[in-house]
Design goal:
Number of domains: 1
GO molecular function: oxidoreductase activity, acting on CH-OH group of donors
InterPro entries: KR_dom, NAD(P)-bd_dom_sf, Sc_DH/Rdtase_CS, SDR_fam
Keywords: Oxidoreductase
Strand order of the largest sheet: 3-2-1-4-5-6-7
Family: Belongs to the short-chain dehydrogenases/reductases (SDR) family.
Helix content: 25-40%
Number of helices: 8
Organism: Anopheles melas
Shape: globular
CATH superfamily: NAD(P)-binding Rossmann-like Domain
Largest sheet: 7 strands, parallel
Radius of gyration: 18 Å
CATH architecture: 3-Layer(aba) Sandwich
CATH topology: Rossmann fold
Length: 284
């Protein structure tokens, strides 16, 4: 198989477990040079147990942030991420629950405030996806579930956190390359990611006068637990082969984009989306 990029593998349950992946994703590289860009900041990250969320949490901790991790139910992955954050010198709390539940979101924010007294950076990263052959095969319940997790959850947590975010705060939303080029088998996911991009741009305009920046990151094919828990073993084996770079990206290659948007280096950047996708030009 000339275009094989990964060993064939599949997990039966979403959102997947990072510890069961082979090879394990790279979430932090020793090549990364931290510079205290987030010293003293408090960051709240959803989908923080694994994948991109884990990489962002560890990079934020390396830059001096305290980190609250929100995840669905992946206890082992969340524990490993918390340990990795601690190894970087960051304080960490973890909370398990569904971001589409408004009461859960309000409780998470209350816990962060009780622990550190404020929220400086909010990373809305939780997501799910369900492949289907065509629109006729996509169940209404599945469509609603994906929208509840991917965009309603973002609305719920942002609404809960926003009263406690002041001038200089940063909101970063994970959208996707699928928002810009589509995906024939990920109709639900792609649609939510388009909504996230529009939400990001609109909220940036809404909050500009308050000095709160809102941006997005649109990853391409990144090696996270969502991949083997979504696609067949044969599809996983070719994951990322169709990018100009010919391979999937690692979470450690995406996380520095979040560091930039969270830091003062991006003080004049709002309403924008950074594309970390292996070289695909989407002009968005």
């Amino acid at each position: 198989m000339s275009e094989q990029t990964l060993p064939p593998q599949h997990q039966d349950k979403q959102p997947g477990r990072e510890g069961a992946m082979h090879p394990l994703p790279e979430y932090f590289s020793e090549r990364y040079k931290a510079a205290g860009k987030l010293a003293g900041k408090v960051a709240l990250i959803t989908g923080g147990d694994s994948g991109i969320g884990r990489a962002v949490a560890v990079h934020f901790a390396a830059e001096g942030a305290q980190v609250a991790l929100v995840y669905l139910d992946e206890e082992d992955d969340a524990r490993e991420t918390a340990e990795a954050v601690a190894r970087q010198g960051g304080q960490v709390i973890t909370r398990a629950g569904d971001v589409a539940d408004g009461e859960f979101c309000r409780q998470v924010v209350a816990d962060v405030l009780d622990t550190w007294g404020r929220v400086d950076v909010l990373v809305n990263n939780a997501g799910e996806q369900h492949p289907c052959e065509g629109l006729e095969a996509l169940e209404e319940a599945t469509w609603e579930r994906t929208f509840r997790t991917n965009i309603l959850g973002m609305f719920q947590l942002t609404k809960a956190a926003l009263p406690h975010m002041g001038q200089g705060a940063s909101i970063i939303n994970t959208t996707s390359i699928t928002a810009y080029k589509g995906n024939p088998s990920l109709l639900d996911y792609s649609s939510t990611k388009g909504a996230i991009t529009a939400f990001t741009r609109s909220l940036a305009l809404n909050l500009a006068s308050r000095g709160i920046r809102v941006n997005g990151v649109a990853p391409g094919p990144i090696w996270t637990p969502l991949i083997p828990s979504t696609f067949t073993a044969e599809q996983v084996a070719r994951f990322g082969a169709d990018t100009p770079m010919g391979r999937p990206g690692q979470p450690a290659e995406v996380a520095p984009a979040y560091v930039y948007l969270a830091s003062e280096d991006a003080s004049y950047v709002s309403g924008q989306v950074l594309h970390v996708n292996g070289g695909t030009v989407v002009n968005g």
